[in-house]
Design brief:
binds zinc ion; mainly alpha; Reverse transcriptase zinc-binding domain-containing protein; 19 helices; 2 domains; single chain; 0% strand
């Protein structure tokens, strides 16, 4: 069903994320949550298969690779991982039965009572299985208290909070997702406004930026095991300057093409928002987030990020950067800055990140 839904893109073009999210909730989520109220997720293998379907659909919807981090799928689209959603549905079913005690079918009431009795005896039952499911989600639960509708509602709230903290915990633990983890504001699972940028490729560039699926060396050389300090900027190759998002998008001026793109962006921003006040602080991740926070600027910023990534892709395709990483002698006509061996010269990555030129914006 997930593949068939995305097959629509062959006829209508790239699905806008909001529309894709709507289709997901209408056509895929019902399959992933079918029977969740009574069939609890005790089998990790079966749950994994549902999670795979969910992640595959959401990755394709956002234009991310099959190896992209999971966290951004939920923080950016405003959806819960399926294991939390299924647990909430089971709790809602329990709440419905508990609240309607006396009015629910007698067989259901009797079955629930028997389930509580077996759990109290230490035997396996639906209610004890529900306790296991919640425990796996790191929700402490008192089984006997699940007879109380208010307590069940409290458990639902705690699972919802656990979904948010679980996803954001993954982001904050990751060394790859610094840009996203550093986004100011509430830690929530929400549909993000940048996903409404109309141009599909430009929108995807922003998604790649936040999900760290871009061509910059800080990410592209990570998998090859290149030390962070050695992922030097391909344009300026300044000692100690890592090719990260802030440096290439906001600071580096070593490439004429890059400088031209940035000047064009600034001009377009000034025309789109007369009197626009740029942040006066140094250029940091905060500047990236400021550019992502203003809906008037988003299409311009998205196009700029797309163009810069295309420039980096073009440079990477030339093969010169790979040579530069292996050797300080880059094969271009640009003048080389003399730099002693990296092992003795490059400062720690954190120093390099905080050494961005202030006042560019
Ligand atoms: Zn540079």
């Amino acid at each position: 069903m997930a593949n068939v839904t995305l097959a629509a893109e062959a006829y209508v073009g790239r699905l806008p994320p909001w529309d894709g999210r709507t289709l997901y909730l209408a056509r895929i989520d019902p399959h992933l949550t079918a029977g969740a109220a009574v069939m609890l997720d005790l089998n990790a293998e079966l749950l994994k298969s549902l999670e795979t379907v969910q992640a595959t659909f959401l990755r394709r919807l956002l234009g991310l690779s099959s190896r992209s981090p999971l966290g951004p799928l939920f923080t950016e689209l405003g959806l819960q991982p399926i294991r939390y959603r299924r647990a909430i549905l089971a709790l809602r079913y329990l709440a419905k039965v508990v609240v309607s005690a006396g009015r629910a079918p007698r067989l259901v009431t009797a079955a629930l009572e028997e389930s509580f009795r077996m759990a109290a005896m230490g035997a396996a039952s639906w209610i004890s299985d529900l306790g296991h499911v919640l425990t796996r989600l790191e929700i402490a639960v008192d089984i006997e208290s699940l007879r109380n509708a208010e307590y069940v509602q409290e458990c639902i709230t705690r699972v919802e909070e656990a979904a948010v903290s679980g996803v954001w915990g993954l982001l904050e633990e990751s060394t790859r997702l610094e840009v996203l983890a550093g986004r100011p504001g509430n830690r929530s699972l929400s549909f993000r406004s940048y996903l409404r940028v109309p141009h599909a490729d430009h929108r995807r560039a922003l998604t790649r930026l936040l999900a760290s699926e871009h061509p910059l060396a800080i990410h592209s050389l990570r998998e090859g095991g290149t030390p962070r300090d050695a992922r030097r900027c391909r344009f300026c190759r300044s000692a100690g300057v890592v090719e990260d998002e802030v440096h290439v998008l906001l600071v580096c001026t070593a490439s004429d093409e890059l400088a031209t793109l940035r000047e064009s962006l600034k001009t377009a921003m000034a025309e789109a928002v007369p009197g626009l006040t740029m942040p006066r602080t140094g250029v940091t991740f905060g500047t990236l987030h400021w550019l992502l926070s203003d809906r008037r600027l988003l299409p311009l910023w998205a196009r700029y990020v797309y163009d810069v990534f295309a420039l980096v892709d073009s440079d990477a395709a030339s093969g010169s950067y790979v040579l530069a990483v292996g050797s300080p002698e880059r094969v271009t006509g640009r003048e080389e800055a003399h730099s002693p061996p990296r092992a003795t010269m490059l400062p720690h990555a954190s120093e390099a990140r905080h050494a961005q030129t202030p006042g560019m914006w």
